[in-house]
């Protein structure tokens, strides 16, 4: 069939359902709180749609409703909406408080990771300066012996390890091997070979399983 190519990740699924149900979903700006049980409605409406499976819908909805822009939209006095944009009742206070708590915890986690990265960067810079000063001090000493063949500096031992299959779970914190070092991230989605992760700066990317470390 034409235009029946299977969607491959949550970003594509969210964009697709936003296109199909624009009065309910959005891919930018503040999101509207969704009707309780919206997954069942989606599954029924897209039951014959070959582009997306129920598993993909469930994963995409989880990512959509845990995003900062969605949590920002969960406010007191705001109505939930169904797939057609119809209001389905005002948000309950406990749901508003839960969203606010989740948003603050998520932001605190990002702040903590950025702080760790800054400390690690400062430490690495300090170590580099110390090594440079040490090399300069050595070169200033008179040499009374024949020059020795210089040895290449060895890279610091990588103390991380490859993930086990049990550790590849949505929400788990991991390290992504970027070639020049490991970047902290969290798993948001995975399939047979590829894993989608969210870096501490909020960006998401797809990497191979072998590039994940613990």
UniProtKB/TrEMBL annotation:
It is found in: Cytoplasm. Residues 133-149 have a biased composition (Basic residues). It comes from the Bacteria. Its main location: cytoplasm. GO terms for molecular function: RNA strand annealing activity; RNA strand-exchange activity. The keyword Disulfide bond does not apply. GO terms for cellular component: cytosol. SUPFAM superfamilies: FinO-like. Keywords: Chaperone, Cytoplasm, RNA-binding. Residues 5-119 form the ProQ/FinO domain. Residues 150-162 have a biased composition (Basic and acidic residues). Residues 102-162 are annotated as: Disordered. InterPro entries: ProQ, ProQ/FinO, ProQ/FinO_sf, ProQ_C. GO terms for biological process: post-transcriptional regulation of gene expression. RNA chaperone with significant RNA binding, RNA strand exchange and RNA duplexing activities. PANTHER family: RNA CHAPERONE PROQ (PTHR38106). This is RNA chaperone ProQ. It comes from Photobacterium indicum.
């Amino acid at each position: 069939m034409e235009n029946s190519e299977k969607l491959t990740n949550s970003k594509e699924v969210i964009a697709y359902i936003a296109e199909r149900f624009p009065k309910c979903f959005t891919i930018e700006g503040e999101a509207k709180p969704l009707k309780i049980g919206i997954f069942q409605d989606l599954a029924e409406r897209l039951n014959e749609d070959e582009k997306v499976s129920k598993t993909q819908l469930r994963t995409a909805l989880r990512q959509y409703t845990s995003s900062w822009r969605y949590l920002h939209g969960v406010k007191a006095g705001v109505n939930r909406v169904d797939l057609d944009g119809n209001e389905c009742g005002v948000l309950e206070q406990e749901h508003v408080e839960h969203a606010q708590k989740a948003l603050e915890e998520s932001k605190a986690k990002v702040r903590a990771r950025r702080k760790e990265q800054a400390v690690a960067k400062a430490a690495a810079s300090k170590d580099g300066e110390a090594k440079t000063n040490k090399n300069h001090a050595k070169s200033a000493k008179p040499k009374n012996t024949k020059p020795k063949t210089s040895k290449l500096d060895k890279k610091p031992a990588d103390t991380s390890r490859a993930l086990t299959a049990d550790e590849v779970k949505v929400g788990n914190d991991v390290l992504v091997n970027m070639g020049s070092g490991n970047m902290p991230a969290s798993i948001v989605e995975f399939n047979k070979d590829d894993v989608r992760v969210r870096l501490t700066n909020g960006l998401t990317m797809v990497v191979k399983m072998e590039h994940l470390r613990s």
